[in-house]
Design brief:
- By secondary structure, this protein is an alpha+beta fold.
- Helices cover 51% and strands 14% of the residues.
- The chain contains ten helices and eight strands.
- A hairpin with a 2-residue loop joins β4 and β5.
- It is elongated and about 65 Å long.
Length: 334
């Protein structure tokens, strides 16, 4: 292009316009890319914040639930003044209500909130009575473990200023000792294979029934366990089985897990009895069990289960609830 005669160092206006247009395009593209980056970053931030809020919400709900009894509980839902001929300090009720109001923002004027506090305090009286009867002295280590079970690792120091908080921790520690030393339980491992509510893509593509596949697989697993194969070797192999790898709604078809006092296997009282009927170091037959949806408290799916026990005791009570019911039935109060 010919130079501008009046100003040899200056390009023609057409060049300026073209250059300006190109520069404008680059700036526009840069702006769009930058804006897109910022939008994506904002969305990521929003998702992270949402996820964190959900975690906090879930944790708060779990923490609140640890201090609440089932509304269908048989425990009295009104304050008591006498417990087995011993005076009950009314302050424990007012402090429990104040704690719920300040920490959990509960509407303590509602009848439901009051009933739950009254039931919680009464359960605690039963726990204290059992601890005295057994001669238990709750150690700092046991309280620390109870605190982590109820509230996780990070506890705000101000919570410990509430008498109700410390009472809940001590009660949880006593409850754990009851479960460990007075109730029947089994430890070990289990394999659970769901056959309703799930079905791997491989199975669906073959047009096969998930229950048929699950029945074949669980029979094979049982035979191999009976021949002496370890759970760990089966875990590595079956976790890569294409017929079992898929999941629906976050619910896996195949589950390997350890059997503990908190296992979801014990949600079903009838199944709990089957577990307790097993001897230590015994491989169970193939059980069929129902799985509970904890949001609706309804049994929605079915699964095959094999259990291998490695420890446990036969206690005086079949479960903590069994202890609670019997203790309550032997208590006088007004």
């Amino acid at each position: 292009e010919e130079p501008d005669i009046k100003n040899p160092t200056r390009p023609k206006s057409s060049t300026i316009k073209i250059g300006g247009a190109i520069l404008g395009i680059f700036l526009l593209l840069g702006g769009l890319v930058g804006a897109r980056y910022l939008v994506q970053k904002q969305k990521v931030g929003e998702k992270r914040t949402q996820a964190q809020n959900e975690q906090v919400k879930t944790k708060e709900q779990n923490q609140t639930n640890t201090s609440q009894l089932d509304p269908n509980s048989i425990l009295p839902d009104s304050p008591v003044s006498l417990f087995n001929n011993n005076q009950v300090d009314p302050k424990v009720y007012s402090e429990a209500l104040a704690y719920d109001k300040n920490v959990w923002r509960s509407d303590i004027e509602s009848e439901q909130a009051k009933k739950l506090v009254n039931q919680r305090v009464f359960e605690r009286l039963l726990l204290y009575q059992e601890a005295k009867k057994q001669g238990w002295v709750i150690t700092d280590e046991e309280k620390s473990a109870a605190e982590k079970r109820l509230f996780g690792e990070n506890i705000h120091a101000n919570l410990r200023l509430y008498p109700e908080f410390n009472r809940q921790i001590e009660a949880e520690a006593i409850k754990e000792k009851i479960r460990q030393e007075l109730t029947s339980w089994r430890a070990g491992e289990y394999i659970r294979l769901r056959y309703t509510g799930v079905g791997s893509e491989a199975v669906r593509n073959k047009g096969q029934n998930p229950k048929t596949i699950a029945q074949t697989k669980i029979n094979e697993i049982k035979n191999r366990l009976d021949r002496g194969e370890a759970f760990s070797s089966l875990r590595a192999e079956l976790n890569n089985d294409s017929d079992l790898m898929d999941q629906n709604d976050g619910e896996e078809m195949l589950t390997f897990n350890y059997l503990t006092l908190d296992s979801s296997l014990f949600d079903d009282p009838d199944f709990n009895k089957k577990v307790l009927d097993l001897n230590v170091n015994e491989i169970s037959k193939i059980f069929t069990m129902q799985l509970m949806d904890h949001e609706t408290n309804k049994y929605i799916d079915y699964a095959f289960v094999i259990i291998k026990t490695t420890g446990g005791i036969n206690g005086s009570y079949s479960s903590y609830k069994n202890w609670l019911d019997k203790s309550f039935s032997q208590t006088k109060y007004q």
